[in-house]
Amino acid sequence: xxxxxxxxxxxxxRTPLPEEVATYVRERIISGEVRPGDFLRxxxxxxxxxxxxxxxxxxxxxxxxEGFVELVPRRGFMAAAFTEQDLRDLFWTQAxxxxxxxxxxxxxxxxxxxxxxxxxxxxxxxxxxxxxxxxMAALGHAFHREINLAADSRRLTFLLAAAVKHxxxxxxxxxxxxxxxxxQDHPKIVEALHRRDVRKVRSLMNQHILAGAxxxxxxxxxxxxxxxxxxxx
Length: 233
Description:
The protein is mainly alpha-helical and 233 residues long. 70% of the residues lie in helices and 4% in strands.
C-alpha cells in the first residue's frame, strides 16, 4: 500500500521544462519573493534551474497569458500586480470545483480507494512527525488526487487542475497553521466519504480549501505583500 501511495503522489509524467519554469516563477510571485514591478531576467532563472534560456522564455510567455507577468517592450518581463482579491478568487474557483468533485466521489468511491486514502492519512501523519515538508506536500497532493479520481469526472478534474496550477504548493507546509489544518480536515473528509455523506463531504471540502486561502493571505500580509489600502476583508 505504501508503494501505491508513493506512485499516486509522484504521478506518472515528467513536467515539460517551460511548465516547470512557469510553476517556479509563479510560486515566487505569489509567495512575495518577487514583487509587482520586479523584472524577471532570463539568465538568473535559467541558472537557478539549470536549464537554457529558451524554456525560461517560453515559461514566462505562459505566465504572461495568465496575467502573472507583463512583457515590457525593450525591457523584458515584469511581474504584474497581484492583489489579495486575485488570490481569493483563485481559491474560490478551486473550492467550487473541488467540493463538487468530492461530493461526486462520495457517491462513487470504492473500498480500495478508501483504503488508499486511509493509507495517505497515515503516511501524512508520519511525515508530520518527521518534519518532512516535501513529503507532506506530496501526500497532500495525493489526498486530493485520489478523491478527484474517485469522482470519475474527467472534465471537472481537468478544470480543477487548470485552477490549481495557479496556486503555490511547495511552500504550503511552511505556512503557519497549514499542516495542522490538513491534519484536522483531511480525516474528517475521509470519515464523511466512508459514510458516503454527500452534503457533509461537499461542505468540508469547501471549508478546507477556503481556510487555506485565509492562511495564505495572512502569511503574505505578514510579508508585506499588500498595503492596508490594497487588502480586502
